[in-house]
Amino acid sequence: MITNLAVEVDNLSGQRLELCYHCHQCTAGCPVVGAMDYGPDQLLRLIALDERDTVLPARDIWLCAGCYTCATHCPNEIDLAAVMDALRQIAVANGYAAGERDALLFHRLFLSVVRRLGRSHEATLLGLFKLLARAPLLNDLGAGAGLFARGKVPLLPEWSGRASAEVKRLFEQSAKK
Ligand code: SF4
Ligand code: SF4
């Protein structure tokens, strides 16, 4: 039986959840399943049962790293990263609090940094996040210093006018939709 939540997710994500036959391959390969409440396979089952109040506050939808491992494992080519994106949109639109503390703040800050700089900049994002989430400022200092020293994270953001204009255009297109 196709339920309302399944239809909403299908429409938003462009996927066909009814193809899922719960082989568990997606969950077996997911790198963050240990921190999730249910895992991708069980989440799809809950969507099929229209368990909105269980699915939409779940930590799973905020912890998904969008790594596409599940999509490459799925015999039916269901893109669970797109499904998680759709679930986040539905959760926010319907006023469900993010199941993972400060996850929504992190997502908003990430988009704000990309919008302004035309690309992500980890140091800016982390600094803003720690300030606004009132997280301890210095507890990642050791790991951060190593990344700076190896040139993995630039201290100052790079700015490209062309990239910034292109990203701005994408944000405008998205807002129109
Ligand atoms: S791998 Fe695909 S078919 Fe198997 S449980 Fe996951 S989504 Fe469903
Ligand atoms: S895209 Fe999300 S659900 Fe799929 S394997 Fe990666 S983290 Fe897990």
Compact overview of the structure:
The chain has 177 residues and is mainly α. It has helices at residues 4-13, 25-29, 40-48, 52-55, 60-63, 69-73, 80-93, 103-117, 122-132, 141-149, 161-176.
How would you portray this structure in words?
This protein is an all-alpha fold. The chain has two domains: 5-93, Alpha-helical ferredoxin (Fumarate Reductase Iron-sulfur Protein, Chain B, domain 2); 101-174, no CATH class. It contains eleven helices and no strands. It has helices at residues 4-13, 25-29, 40-48, 52-55, 60-63, 69-73, 80-93, 103-117, 122-132, 141-149, 161-176. Helix 1 packs across helix 7 (80-93), helix 8 (103-117) packs across helix 9 and helix 8 (103-117) packs across helix 11 (161-176). The longest helix has 16 residues, at 161-176. The protein is globular and about 45 Å long. The two termini are 29 Å apart. The mean pLDDT is 89. Bound molecules: iron/sulfur cluster (2 copies). The site of one iron/sulfur cluster has 15 residues, from helix 2 and helix 3.
